[in-house]
Amino acid sequence: MNDRRTRRRRRSGNALIDVLNGMLTLLVIGLVVVGGGFFYVASQYYGAGPVQEERIFRVESGNTLTTTANRLEEQGFISNALIFSQFGGRVEKNTVVKAGDFSIPAQASMSDILRELTEGNPIRYAVTIPEGWTAWQVLRRLADDDRLTGEITTLPPEGSILPGSYDYTPGDTRQSVLDKMQLAMTQALATVWEGRVADLPLKSPAELLILASIVEKETGVASERPEVAAVFVNRLRTGMRLQSDPTIIYGITLGQSTLDRGIRRSEIEQKTAYNTYQIDGLPPTPIANPGIEALRAVANPDTHKYLYFVAKGATPSEGHVFAETYAEHQTNVARYRAIAAEAAAQAEAEAEQARQALEAEQAEEAQDSAQ
Fold this sequence. Notes:
Layout: H1 2-46, E1 55-59, H2 65-74, H3 81-91, E2 100-104, H4 110-119, E3 125-129, H5 135-144, E4 164-168, H6 174-194, H7 205-218, H8 225-238, H9 245-253, H10 265-269, H11 292-299, E5 308-311, E6 320-323, H12 326-370
Antiparallel strand pairs: 1-2, 3-4, 5-6
């Protein structure tokens, strides 16, 4: 009887050991499987990616990590969207992707890509508006940028846009970029108006903006702006008409085309709202979008007694020569006309030489062909 009980206890003990050994074996196998799985996932996540050359990837505004992972896999940047979003979402500190275009290097790992999309800087895109452009020209530039979306159907007020460079993210609307430009002008004009000289003969920021647009179109030499502004300020103070050629041109084109010819006498004599040879004071609106320096020049013009100016030479970069009296101005005008005539004659002579050289070359070629 005792032997039978002893054998029974031994069998029970062996069975328990077998169960424990089996459980331990399963645990080891499980750990191996889990460890192997983790190693595989980690190697996929941190290993070199499939992209063989640098490429651009775009994150659309509002994309989540999961959406981004799926698009990365579809475009061949990564091999497994689930690993990217689930494993990456757990091991990286930041998983909020930024909108924009990103440059992804060749063989970039999932880890590299996620860090670039969350911590890197998108490629900088910007639209640049030169000083003196009209609203119509600005809208054309915005329309030509195919990274922007939407349409602008209404021409913004002339002078409401501050020239400069404006960053944007691909997919932004054209209207949103235009809004930035207009807000920048509103803020700049308010600041400049607050800092104007006390005796300026302008009643409002709107009048300062109009005069600044004229100054902007009259000279392309930055250092001359305060001097040119002072001429017009002096004229306003004395009641003289501004007599600015760019205002005549704007009255003809309304800023929606360029006048690729000289101003005709009939256009100088025609009374329009913008012809400052025919109207007193300022035109009703700006004639372009002036830059910040033109605004500042009008708000703080030079102190001098000049009432006239004319181009110094045949090219705009040479600037202008100034005069206090009409007699002195006439002398300067005569000098400018002589310079312009000489430049025109030189240009015509060079053109004639080019024509003769081309004719000689073609005649020689024709003779060779005949032979």
